[in-house]
Amino acid sequence: MNNCIGIRRENKYPTERRAPLTPGQVQKLVDNYHIRVLVEPSERRIFREDEYRAAGAEISADLSDCNIIFGVKEIPLPDLHPHQAYCFFSHTIKAQPYNMPMLKHITEQGISLLDYELVTNRQGRRQIFFGNFAGYAGMIDSLWALGQRLAAEGIDTPFLEIQPAYLYDTLDAAMEAIKHVGNHIRTRGLPEQLSPLICGFSGYGQVSKAAQKIFELLPTLKLSPDELSDFVERGQFSNHTLYSVEFYEKDMFEPRDPAAEFDLPDYFAHPEKYSSKFEPYIPYLTLLINGIFWTPQCPRLVTKAYLKDLFRQSGQPRLRVLGDISCDIEGSIEATVKATKSDNPVYVYDPETDSARDGVSGRGPVVMAIDILPAELPREATEFFGNALMFYIPALAAADFTQASGQLALPADFQKALIVHNGQLARDFRYLDDHL
Prior knowledge:
Helix content: 25-40%
Shape: globular
Number of strands: 18
Structural class: alpha/beta
Mean pLDDT: 95
Largest sheet: 8 strands, mixed
Number of helices: 12
Strand order of the largest sheet: 3-2-1-4-5-6-17-18
């Protein structure tokens, strides 16, 4: 039915509380565009059913009347209904093996699939994302993990006051708690054995900037990659200050051809022609927050082989926490051997045995690899996400998905977001057929 949209319940993860739209955003769609909104019941969602009902939505377990159904995460096969149109983060475009059964089912059932990750403007910039909230939550959780790890080593720090992000009612509450820790460090300092405490940030996009915003609530000073080694060796640092380093592609990668110079467009086009030069920085870092995009063609930042050498040395290396917000399994951080969840957020990667042990104790770095970080800040994340999505909903609600793909009137930014149309892979995604 045209001008009718659905909001499904999220049921992939028990800790998922986000929604595509808030009740306030639903009310604007109902009042200003006369769109019928059906909301599937959910006890987990951060917004209550009566809030949606008061906004003009209908609460219904049956979403079959909807022209398009909006979700957040992947949808279990029994909940995908034939000949329906869905929009969610499908995590299929890299032919991720764990989601190929879902994609196969979508094609077999004549379903249409649109993916938020592919919604881009003319400049190729993503328009609908949770990225900055992944950065906020990932940094909060990494600071919590640092406090827990140091305590396990017998080192008492004010980081122990920080909780995991999902335990705070709001992002503001979490930020206030971290400011309080910052005041403690500013006035009393950290144990001398931790100085200088340096946090590296790989990347400079939405994820990295949000993580840096949280880190900068503490007393911090920014260093460049080029000055890192000299800074540490000179010893002119303070235990009342934390230090950060932001790494760009030119700092992390170099051409395999020794006669070539680093060229950013060439790196993006041909990452296989480059290798990592990141390892010399790692011994100076206490934390590494990873927020870069990675594919199997890209070089790795931190390899298992390097960590094996690092932790074979006598004494405790500086490196305590790998906050892998990108969470590509054995990807840019090869020690990310599995994803984690909010109720069991970290493990220690043992480089000697190539194994993971839940918790913060053991020989090796603590890895924080929660794969649904924005879900830890569900209220603010939904508000931010829905504000971006709102712009496109009237056109999507009116689109006739029974039409042939060439006649399907989608918003311009959604043209490349259609992965499957009525069970057929779109032209740009036919390569996925080999994986089905």
